[in-house]
Amino acid sequence: MRKxxxxxxxxxxxxxxxxxxxxxxxxxxxxxxxxxFVGSAIINIAILYFSLTEVMERKIMDSFQTGLVxxxxxxxxxxxxxxxxxxxxxxxxxxxxxLVDSSVEQKESNVYDVIYENMVLGDGVFETSVFNAARxxxxxxxxxxxxxxxxxxxxxxxxxxxxxxxxxxxxDSFERQMFVLQREIRDDGSIGNGQYLFKIIGYLYASxxxxxxxxxxxxxxxxxxxxxxxxLNGVIxxxxxxxxxGMHSPYHIDPQESKVTVQTVSTGGKKSMVFMLQxxxxxxxxxxxxxxxxxxxxxxxxxxxxxxxxxxxxxxIFAVSGLVSFWITKPMERISxxxxxxxxxxxxxxxxxxxGPYEIEELSIAFNxxxxxxxxxxNEVYEAAFRQSRLENEKxxxxxxxxxxxxxxxxxxxxxxxxxxxxxxxxKGKAADMISELGEFFRMGVKKGEEFIPxxxxxxxxxxxxxxxxxxxxxxLKVFWNxxxxxxxxxxxxxxxxxxxxxxxxxxxxxxxxxxxxxxxCYKLNNEVVFTVSDDGPGISHRxxxxxxxxxxxxLSGDSxxxxxxxxxxxxxxxxxxxxxxxSIPGGGTTVIMRLxxxxxxxxxxKDSTIP
Length: 612
Known about the structure:
The chain is built from 15 helices and 17 strands. Residues about 1-15 have low confidence and may be disordered. The chain is of the alpha+beta class.
């Protein structure tokens, strides 16, 4: 690879061909930028348009369906209120008495009061008439009413049993479309002496203009739409264009369907969406025809908006990309000059604005020179980190030794106190035995050159320690061992379990007048060695237990020096994921669980960096 001298680098920066190359780079940047924007914009617009089209179409259809449901509800309400008003009339006792035994003059007056007291059957009523059992008209609110009830009207009521019967398609004397409500009037035993009981004593006849029904659904009849009512046979019974009344609708009507149905149809080359919903109170279906272009009108507006935004954004991006490319290439010139000087070791170089360099070649020259400097710096950093790591290891080893040194004086003090107590009590034989066992105990504990010992040696060490306490407490101390097979080759730090045993004896057994028992278990679980020491002592209060757990979690010191030293040693040896856990119930004893990694002699030799 060719090396450049400082003078040659300056000449390269002044080369006019390099200026042309720089201009070409800017143009390419603009083209790539526009291509990237146009491609991503087209894809995003297509995705957004089709997704929004689907959402908008669904929302518009939901809106049409909601309007249809609300309108059929209005029609049902109109039917319901007029049926209830008619029922109030036919059950009126005054009206029934007038139909049976009143004079003609009094009868008409009584009927008039009943009819108008009930608001003339509610909204939109055109004519209200009452006929007696002989079908003669005894009252009518219109002078055009029939004087006698027609036979076809009586036939329609034949099987009604007092229920209201609606008739559609009738016309008045002026050929206007009418809806008719008819009811039988029967005696329920409230008049006479029972001779009219359950018999027909009259008829109620009410008629409504079809235009009153039309007004109920005209509110959803938008521009270009058609809304009308058909019966279950598809015959149109209400329409804004009256010439269509009586004709058949071209759409299939399902009498069993109670929900909104949607059909897409094409008539005369025009596509429409047809919504249909059956009324719940009458066998009528409300039909709403909506041209498809009305449904999609909002979608076309969205698409036109997207296209406008896209074109405007394209022009803006074209202008911005030119400025951005200029702003990017100029700093690149400065960077390449700075890198070349910095790589040459000129820390006092002038970092002012430099024009005309060919960026890629300048950067390669600068990076080549800087590589040597970086390697040197890496070596220096590595050596410094190595020295720091060695100092940390030495500090860790010194801390471990200090922690072990704290344990031995603490234990020695407690044991000598026990021997003193035996001597004062006159039991010199036991005191002598304890002194002998204490010597053997320390002989095992202070053996040089063995930081980690096999499990069986640690077990002997702890049994020797328990024996020391057994001399003092006698029958007050009962110890149960439950050791799983297969742990003999596991390595443990020396004197790790002894402070836990001491804690259980001192706080769990000695405080009880009759003594107590300690259960010691050890087993292997998921590549861990688990020690469990349980006593049946007085336990620990909730507040004290929380304090102990906080101190153990933070490796803080507390009242029990040995316990906290063991926790610190475990953390230093194996990490914070291992250690001691306390569980206790006031009055129910205490359990201490210690978890360590299951490490054998072969594994220890592979982990010297972890285990000192």
